[in-house]
Structure formats: C-alpha cells, structure tokens
C-alpha cells in the first residue's frame, strides 16, 4: 500500500475513485498478513486507519545509474518538476513560485514540467496563461528513461510542490544524480531527501519556494544542497531493497 492519499485528501480526487479506494483498501487490509509501504509517513497514515495491521516499511530504491559524487555546479538554469497533473501535486503553485523567483532573479530561471494528464489540467493551463510562458516547457507525453535521466542530471534543481507524498521518486532520482531538490516538506519527502537545506523562510509556501530557488543561484549554496541531497539518498539502493523484500518473503513463508 503505497499511501492513503486518496482517503486522506479525498476532496482532491474523483468521487468514484474515492469510493472504489475505500472499498478496495479496506478489503485488502482486512485480508492481509503484512502490509508493505515505502515510508514511515505512509505507515503512520495506514496504522491510523487500521491499527491492527502489521505494517513494514521498505523504501523504494533508485534504479538509475547513481552519480559517484554530487555535481559541483548546475548544468543548466532549468528547474524540473516531474509529477502527474493532479490536484494534490499543486503544479499551479509551482508555476507561480518559479514566476516569483524569476522576478527576484532577473529572469534567470526556467521551468520544465513533465506531467501527463490528470484532474488539474485546466488549472495548470490557466496558471500558465497568467505568466509570461516563454520560460516554461510542459511535456505532456511520455519521456524515454534515458532522456528523463539526462533532464534530471543537468537540472538546476528538481522541485516538488506536493500537498502530500507517500515517497516521491523524482526527488530520490535527483538526489542520486547529485542534484539539489526543493520541496514543501510534506508527507514523506523529508524522509527521502531530508528537510529543505535552505531553512524556513517567512511567508506563504509560494514565497518560501521562490526564495529557496533564488538562494540556490549562489554557487556555494547550490553545491552544498547538491551534496546533502546526494548523501541523503545513498541508502536507497537496489541491493538493500532486494534484501529487505527477501527477508520479509522468507518470514511470511515460514508462517504458512
């Protein structure tokens, strides 16, 4: 069970899907021996609803080629956001935050959104229409993994403005590539790449995101953020993932 977001934030999802998820999740929980989830955050949310469950945390690994060291300087001025175009991802907020950062940084930054269709496409389209969109690229189709890896590796940073996350693979991929991340600190994101390395700023979340993006224009700050993201993600390896799953499968098999 990756997360319970559709139950926790049900107003942000299609009502039919919410009803389906309530029935399926409850049925699955009732008949499970062990529930596996990728983060302590998701475990807390699951056990809050079903206190009797045996819930184990096995984080996702990164399967991309891990950078041996963090980058010392950005490969571009491109902020990358990889997410479904759904309401809980809050992509319009990302657009407004980058627009604000650009005004503070004399237009230096750009934004690339990699996101297929979801339930917030209309709001995203509206947000784009309200800014000078020459600095924004929205990739709505699938991106080959090789191209996605290059996009992440050469990014100025990878951004997440999600309201909640059960894990957040794009941040893990960024950290493993030695690229800084900027995020809202919601859900499991701090578990994956730590708290925002730039500290708390005054103002709204949009203000804070904008100020953190601008702060990364300072080269030593950028390099320090890259080092921290790279360090935080070292523990999410395929070998650890396979070992944890192997041990759990052996444990469950001995119960049968």
Automatic annotation (TrEMBL):
Is the Transferase keyword given for this protein? yes
Matches recorded under SUPFAM superfamilies: UDP-Glycosyltransferase/glycogen phosphorylase
> What residues does the Glycosyl transferase family domain cover?
73-195
Q: Name one GO molecular function term.
A: glycosyltransferase activity
GO biological-process terms attached to the record? lipopolysaccharide biosynthetic process
Q: Which residues cross the membrane?
A: none
What's the domain of life for this entry?
A: Bacteria
Q: Does the keyword Transmembrane apply?
A: no
Question: Keyword annotations for this protein?
Answer: Transferase
Q: Name one Pfam family in it.
A: Glycos_transf_1
Q: What is this protein called?
A: Glycosyltransferase
Species of origin reads: Nocardioides mesophilus
């Amino acid at each position: 069970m990756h997360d319970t977001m559709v139950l926790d934030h049900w107003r942000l999802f299609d009502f039919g899907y919410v009803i389906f998820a309530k029935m399926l999740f409850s049925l699955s929980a009732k008949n499970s021996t062990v529930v596996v989830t990728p983060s302590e955050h998701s475990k807390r949310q699951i056990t809050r609803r079903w206190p009797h469950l045996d819930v184990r945390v096995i984080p996702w690994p990164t399967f991309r080629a891990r950078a041996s060291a963090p980058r010392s300087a950005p490969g571009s001025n491109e902020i990358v956001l990889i997410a479904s175009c759904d309401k809980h991802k809050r992509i319009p907020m990302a657009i407004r935050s980058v627009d604000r950062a650009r005004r503070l940084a004399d237009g230096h930054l750009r934004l690339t959104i990699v996101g297929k269709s979801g339930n917030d496409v209309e709001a995203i389209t509206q947000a784009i229409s309200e800014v000078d969109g020459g600095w924004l690229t929205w990739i709505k189709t699938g991106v080959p993994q090789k191209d996605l890896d290059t996009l992440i590796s050469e990014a100025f940073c990878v951004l997440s403005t999600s309201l909640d996350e059960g894990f957040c693979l794009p941040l893990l991929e960024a950290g493993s590539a030695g690229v800084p991340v900027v995020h809202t600190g919601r859900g499991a994101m701090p578990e994956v790449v730590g708290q925002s390395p730039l500290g708390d700023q005054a103002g709204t979340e949009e203000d804070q995101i904008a100020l953190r993006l601008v702060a990364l224009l300072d080269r030593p700050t950028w390099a320090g953020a890259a080092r921290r993201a790279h360090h935080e993600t070292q523990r999410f390896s395929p070998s650890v993932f396979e070992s944890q799953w192997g041990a759990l499968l052996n444990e469950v098999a001995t119960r049968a």
